[in-house]
Specification:
Strand content of chain A: over 45%
CATH architecture of one domain in chain A: 7 Propeller
Largest sheet of chain B: none
Order of helices and strands of chain B: HHHHHHHHHHH
Strand content of chain B: under 5%
Oligomer: heterotrimer
Number of helices of chain B: 11
Largest interface: B-C, 50 and 50 residues
Chains: A mainly beta, B mainly alpha, C alpha/beta
CATH superfamily of one domain in chain A: Peptidase/esterase 'gauge' domain
Helix content of chain B: over 70%
Radius of gyration of chain A: 23 Å
CATH topology of one domain in chain A: Methylamine Dehydrogenase, Chain H
Distance between the termini of chain B: 49 Å
């Protein structure tokens, strides 16, 4: 990831673009996206009949396309969009397009530093991936998931490796799906493959598989864990290690396993969404202690408080000590930190973020069509027309706000203690 | 013998029926809690809303499109429960004075139970989709349920040998009581619960009517 | 009356699959299903049923077969679960084939019989237990299993590739713009109010329905989105095949997708079983009592749009129309009243069916029955003569039904029993038949 310490953290408010003006200038203006550092705002606009391009900070890309969509800023603030010209699709990056063209491209992904950009591709009814304009040599019958390692050097996909004719339920049982890593398919095929994940260094690959009608397993580096389970969910590698964790359903309920053995004593009705602490020593997950109730469990201990509807998007503090998560109860969204719910709730709430020292939590919330910033359960009485998730400064004293107010897109760094 | 049947056996029968019923219902509630997907949806208001329709004659569409069956079913069940409860002779066993039915009305109600039994019997024999699912146990159950009423009727009218008839009457009555929790007659225990559960799945969960 | 035996039907999903079964494997599997997955309901229902047969009069299959006893709901339980209990789970592969036929083909899980059972026994649930056992044993009608396989791989029911999905939406957006120039299908719009979800037949074979939706959303001026990832398909045939693991997995993704897009609710197209999957069965399969994101069915959605004045009805459809109440949104959500409001607002000559509302007969296609595919089509049509009679009695020329299963099922039925009749979705009345006003300034070329 590019060092966000290098971003401009001086308390300041800067108007970056006139969003209202962009809206008036073009007959079609789609959805705005902003870069992580807040310096850029982009949107696909229609510039003429059947003619689209990207508008970045009010400036248009030179090229025009029959279609442009899914603009996404990478971590390095480069803008990649999916573009079509002459019925051929490719990727446009900061205004220049890849030479290679396809019948279709989608699902743009970036490496952690944004240096590498990949997409799924389709050509002649065959599926593959293309990284930085260089397509893989092989193509596959279908590809449904695609993962890039943090450094972008390794790419793993889940691909259909065997033909399957219509309603052939028997070949399906034998296994038609498998893993392809850097364009090399693994030997084993499974009924189902899901949730492929890579270790930080890209040297290890893990996934969920279904080995038989009622039998599920976890595969690490091509080897199935010895134990077979009634169900499994997305595995994840402990950061910086090749150690794979996964929620698995055993006779006593869902359990958390690491490298094939249980690491939590507790059993739950459900465990999913593993999140690791930055120091890699702790893990938390969304769990159901009983039917219809959900909460967070951190290192085998579930919070006392439970919620009826949803718990998701847990996040550890940078010091690995605290956990915050989004909650929903009775159709009201809120934030819960270390088992203590915020006293406010919203129509919608976004993933929370901790300050560097872990003392504060900030989140974006929506109420009655307006967006707000909330810190530690207090809502700042400043509504925005549009707002992206606030980002804490490295020293934890400031917050970067990216918002639209009065038709203008602004980037503002302000001291945390001014948000009251 | 007679003393045992009219004395301790009646107590035993009631004890077995009550204890058995309590056990069965407790076990059912425990199992329902274990099944997870039942209790979170149970609501008294929706249960009562539906039960009101199911306890009233012709309160549901199903009852209205099967009018004869409904008439028999209601009369049979009402008389089946009310007659023994409100019969003066029964309370005399314990020497209790209780507002009871005139003998002739009780007699008529007994006849209704017997005629109802015959109606159900012919249904089991003559209606193909009922016959198909009827087993020997169903016939036996019908017999065990109606036997106290048949013998009660015979005893009231003093047909055949009264002593024998009344003995069979008391024996079969006690037997039926004891059978309640342990045979399909348990539907009288479960009815409220099964119906209430469905009422909640329809009414509370799905905003729909189940009558 | 002499009743015919069941006609022979060849289905490899049943015929071939049972060849791999042994009595030991069957016994072990059934034991597991009954002991580990069932509880109070199964036990109490089995103890309570007095074999009165009143459920027979509720079942369209039984009625359509002239009250043939084998099609009575209670007989379906007797011939499957009761037999299993009687034999202490020691049943043969051939038995499992018959059990599968009864559970998948001869019961669609419409739950009408529960409204006629004095005890409210959930017979459809009991037959779902049989389906679960069959699914665990791999004895599932071939086409239904294929649909479930598709769900497990693609999270949609028709093997729609990810690019096909997005491409279709983009193409339908262009089509919608021919009707309303501002129409869009906003993909991946984080923070929209509504995620609109559909079932796979829409992109695969009925793509114009997507354009219709885009037109309705544009005229109503709503903030909506559709995902450009898996999780867009709200259908759930795994729930019907008995593969509850896949059912839970795909419903989780459906709701996860809505939450990723930060929408406040999911509005779903005109499909009934999808509603059941997304709101009732799916959440329960993953330990949730209620859906993570509120789900609004198209009936309710259109009703809200009209009553709130977001869309206006300017024309009534002229032909005589009747309506098919989809089980899963009428018996399954109580939307019968709103459906009739819509019919009366949109149609000049609306003729209601009898019986109706919660008491309406299933189309015969629901519950995964139509997904059992071509081998069983004839069987399905014969088993729902009742529906043909019901439609004919109205004298309607058009049957409106806000459900894909009903739509396809009724199409087969009218071919046989009510030729000349047609089936329509509500969105077709709104958009294609011009019942909904499209303001001049939104029309292509308008200002």
């Amino acid at each position: 990831m590019p060092d966000y310490k290098d971003w401009n953290w001086e308390p300041d408010k800067k108007i970056i673009a006139d969003v209202a003006d962009i809206g008036n200038k073009y007959s079609e203006v789609h959805e705005f996206v902003v870069s992580g550092d807040g310096e850029k705002i982009a949107v696909p606009v229609k510039t003429g009949d059947g003619e689209f391009t990207a508008c970045v900070n009010g400036e248009l890309w030179d090229a025009r396309f029959e279609r442009l969509w899914y603009p996404r800023f990478g971590p390095d603030a480069r803008l990649a969009a999916l573009v079509m010209s002459d019925d051929e699709w490719t990727v446009g990056v900061d205004g220049s397009v890849w030479d290679e063209k396809f019948e279709y491209v989608w699902n743009t992904q970036f490496s952690a530093d944004g240096g590498r950009i990949g997409v799924q591709t389709k050509k002649n009814f065959q599926y593959s991936v293309c990284i930085d304009g260089k397509p893989w040599e092989n193509t596959y019958l279908s590809i449904r998931e695609f993962q890039m390692s943090r450094d972008g050097a390794t790419v793993a996909v889940l691909a259909q490796l065997e033909e399957l004719s219509e309603a052939d339920v028997f070949t399906f049982l034998d296994g038609t799906w498998g893993v392809v890593v850097d364009d090399k398919p693994w030997d084993d095929k499974y009924m189902n493959t899901w949730g492929v994940t890579l270790s930080d260094d890209g040297r290890h690959v893990g996934l969920q598989v279904r080995v038989d009608n009622m039998k599920y397993g976890i595969v690490a580096d091509g080897k199935l864990w010895p134990e077979i389970f009634a169900h499994v969910w997305e595995p994840g590698f402990r950061p910086g290690t090749g150690s794979l964790l996964a929620p698995v359903k055993t006779a006593g309920g869902f359990a958390l396993y690491e490298d094939g053995s249980p690491i939590w004593d507790s059993r739950f009705m459900q465990i999913w969404k593993l999140v690791f602490s930055p120091d890699a020593n702790r893990v938390c997950a969304v769990v159901c202690p009983e039917f219809g109730r959900t909460t967070v469990a951190v290192d085998d201990r579930a919070w006392d408080i439970t919620f009826a509807d949803v718990v998701r998007d847990q996040v550890f503090s940078p010091d690995s000590a605290r956990v915050a998560a989004i909650t929903k109860d009775n159709n009201r969204w809120s934030i819960c930190v270390d088992g203590k719910p915020w006293p406010v709730d919203f129509d919608m709430v976004w993933k929370p973020a901790f300050s560097h020292d872990g003392s504060s939590v900030v989140a974006k919330g929506e109420q009655d069509g307006k967006y707000f910033v909330a810190v530690d359960g207090r809502v700042w009485n400043q509504p925005f027309e549009m707002l992206w998730e606030p980002i804490m400064s490295p020293d934890g004293a400031k917050v970067l706000l990216r918002y639209v107010e009065g038709g203008k897109y602004c980037r503002r760094v302000m001291p945390l203690n001014e948000i009251k | 013998m007679q003393d045992f049947i009219s004395g301790p056996l009646v107590w035993i029968a009631f004890f077995v029926m009550i204890a058995g019923s309590v056990y069965k219902i407790t076990a059912m509630i425990k199992a329902a809690k274990q099944e997870k997907v039942i209790m979170p949806y149970m609501r008294l208001s929706f249960s009562l809303r539906s039960l009101k329709h199911w306890l009233l004659p012709y309160g549901t569409r199903g009852m209205r499109i099967n009018p004869v069956m409904t008439a028999y079913a209601f009369l049979f069940h009402i008389c089946l429960i009310a007659t023994p409860l409100l019969l003066a002779a029964h309370w005399k066993i314990w020497g209790i004075q209780f507002p009871t039915l005139p003998g002739r009305l009780a007699d008529l109600m007994t006849v209704i139970v017997i005629v109802g039994g015959v109606y159900f019997l012919q249904r089991r024999i003559l209606v193909p989709y009922v016959k198909n699912v009827t087993s020997a146990a169903d016939y036996a159950l019908l017999l065990f349920v109606t036997l106290p009423y048949i013998t009660g009727f015979l005893a009231y009218h003093q047909w055949f040998d009264y002593g024998t008839v009344i003995t069979i009457h008391m024996l079969s009555g006690c037997l039926m009581l004891m059978m309640i929790p342990f045979t399909r007659i348990a539907h009288m225990l479960y009815f409220v619960f099964t119906r209430a559960y469905m009422a909640c799945e329809f009414g509370f969960v799905r905003n729909a009517r189940d009558w | 009356m002499k009743y015919e035996p069941r006609p022979e039907v060849k289905d490899d999903g049943l015929d071939e699959s049972i060849k791999k079964l042994t009595p030991e494997k069957i016994k072990e599997t059934i034991r597991f299903a009954l002991d580990k997955e069932c509880g109070a309901r199964l036990k109490v229902y089995m103890d309570t049923c007095v074999h009165c047969g009143l459920c027979a009069t509720a079942c369209h299959q039984c009625i359509s077969h002239d009250m043939d006893p084998k099609y009575a709901p209670v007989a379906k339980v007797k011939d499957t679960l009761v037999e299993i209990f009687k034999k202490d789970c020691k049943v043969s592969p051939e038995f499992m084939k018959l059990a599968a036929r009864i559970a998948y083909i001869e019961c669609g899980g419409c739950r009408r019989c529960s409204m006629y059972c004095p005890f409210g026994i959930d017979i459809a649930y009991l037959l779902m237990v049989v389906r679960r056992i069959c699914s665990m044993l791999g004895v599932v009608p071939m086409y239904l299993q294929d649909t479930t396989n598709s769900h497990s791989v693609t999270y949609n029911q028709m093997w729609v590739q990810q690019d096909e999905w997005i491409d279709t939406l983009q193409w339908q957006e262009e089509d919608a713009q021919k009707v309303v120039k501002t129409a869009r299908i906003p993909l991946e719009k984080e923070g929209a109010d509504i995620m609109y979800s559909v079932i796979a037949p829409e992109p695969k074979i009925l793509a114009q329905l997507l354009a219709n939706a885009a037109v309705i959303f544009a005229v109503a001026g709503l903030d909506w989105t559709m995902p450009a990832t898996d999780g867009w398909d709200n259908s759930n045939m795994a729930m019907y095949s008995g593969d509850f693991e896949s059912s839970g997995r795909l419903e989780r993704l459906h709701h996860e997708t809505a939450m990723r897009l930060k929408v406040k609710k999911i509005v779903m197209g005109e499909c009934g079983h999808a509603f059941r999957g997304a709101v009732y069965d799916g959440p329960r399969h993953i330990g949730q009592a209620y859906p993570a994101v509120p789900v609004i069915h198209a009936i309710e959605f259109y009703h809200d749009l009209i009553t709130s004045g977001k869309i206006k009805i300017v024309k009534k459809f002229k032909k005589p129309v009747t309506v098919q109440d989809p089980c899963n949104t009428v018996r399954g959500r109580g939307l019968g009243g709103k459906l009739r409001d819509l019919m009366n607002w949109l149609c000049e000559d609306f003729r209601d069916m009898n019986p109706r509302f919660e008491h309406n007969y299933c189309c015969g296609a629901g519950g995964g029955v139509i997904n059992c595919g071509p081998p069983w089509t004839r069987n399905r049509v014969v088993a729902n003569r009742t529906k043909g009679d019901q439609i004919n009695a109205t004298g309607a020329e058009v049957v409106v039904t806000p459900c894909h299963n009903c739509h396809s099922g009724i199409e087969d039925i009218i071919k046989e029993y009510a030729p000349g009749t047609h089936v329509k979705f509500i969105s077709e009345l709104l958009v294609d038949e011009g019942c909904m006003e499209i303001p001049e300034h939104l029309r292509p070329g308008g200002d």
